[in-house]
Amino acid sequence: MAYRSRESKIIVGCRLEYGITNxxxxxxxxxxxxxxxxxxxxxxxxxxxxxxxYIFWKANVxxxxxxxxxxxxxxxxxxxGPEVTQFQTGAAxxxxxxxxRLYLAYCNQQNEILISSSLDGKSWSAAALxxxxxxxxxxxxxxxxxxxxINDKLVLFWGGGQPEKDAVLYANLDTDNxxxxxxxxxxxxxxxxxxxxxxxxxxxxxxxxxLVTTSKNGEISIAxxxxxDSRSNLTxxxxxxxxxxxxVCLVPGYFGRVNQEEWGLTVVYRGFGQDSKLYEVxxxxxxxxxxxxxxxxxxxxxxxxxxxxQALKELAECKVARDTLQAxxxxxxxxxxxxxxxxxxxxxxxxxxxxxxxxxxVRR
Length: 364
Hints:
This protein is α+β, with helices and mostly antiparallel strands. It has a domain at about 295-360. Helices cover about 20% and strands about 35% of the residues. It contains 3 helices and 23 strands. It has a 5-stranded mixed sheet with strand order 12-16-15-14-13, with no helix packed on it. It has a 4-stranded antiparallel sheet with strand order 4-5-6-7, with no helix packed on it. It has a 4-stranded antiparallel sheet with strand order 8-9-10-11, with no helix packed on it. β22 and β23 form a beta hairpin.
C-alpha cells in the first residue's frame, strides 16, 4: 500500500507478516530517497506493470495544480526516478495495468478527467479529455476517478457531483481509440442512490468486481455483483468510518492466510474526523466465491434430486418385477402340485390340460 503521512511524505508499505492480529509492514519513505520530490499534497496511487510496482503522486504544491510524479521498483530496494510528467493534476492521480498498457487518469483544475497510457511505463500518450458518447461536454468529477474492469472492458468510475446529487457513475473506455476520449454505456450505481463526496476504491477479478465507497456520512460501503446490486457496509465496528477514500485490494488467502485458495478483499482506510490512524480490515472470502459455492451446491442438489427420482423409478420397476416373479412362482408351484396329483392319478386328463393351458399358456 501507499499513503501520505501527516508530514506529506509518500510512504510505501509492504506487508511482511500475515495473520488476523499480526500484520507487520515494512515501510519505504520516498521523502528520504527523493527529498521534497518524495512529498505530496494528495494521496498516492499504486499499480503493477510489467513486473514492477509503480507509485504515482501529485507534486507537493498545496491546493494548486501540480505535476504528476512517479517512480517504480522491482524489489522494494531500488527505486527508479523519480520521473516528473507534463501532466498537471488538481488532485490525486489513479493508475491501472490493463492488458498491455499502463493507464493514468487525473482531474485538471476544472475537474475535467483526462487519461493517458503507456506501453513501457516511460513514454506516455497525450492526455485525452473524456466525454460521454451522446455529448461533447467533458465529464467532470469533484474527486479523483477510479479504474475497474467489467466483462473484460476497462471501466472508469467518477463522481457526478452536485448536478447528479453526488451519484457514482461508470462507463466503458474505448481503449482502442483512447485519444478520442469517448465513454460508452454510462450507468449510475444503485440508480444514483449510491452517493459520495470523497471517492471510490475499486478491486476486481475476471469473475467479479468490488466498489468500496466512503459515503457522505463517513460510512464505508461495499457494492459487488454484476450491476453492483449486492450492497453492504462496515458499520459493525465503531472505527469503520473514514474521512477519506479507501484503498482496496485483493490478496491471496482470506484474513491474510496466503496458503488458501480463496482471495480476500482488504480495505485500508484513514480514521474518521480527528482520527488519523490507518486501519485495515479483511472481508474474508469474497461474496463471489460464496455465490459460486452456492451455485455449485444448488447444481449438486438438482443432480441428486434427479438421481433420487431415477432410483425411485427403478425401485418401483424392481417391485413390479418382484411381484410378477412371485406370481409366476405361485403359478409354477400350483402346476407342480397339479402334476404331482396327476402322477398319483388324482387329477383327470382333461382337468390337467386345463391347468396347463391356464398356467403355462400351452395350447392343444
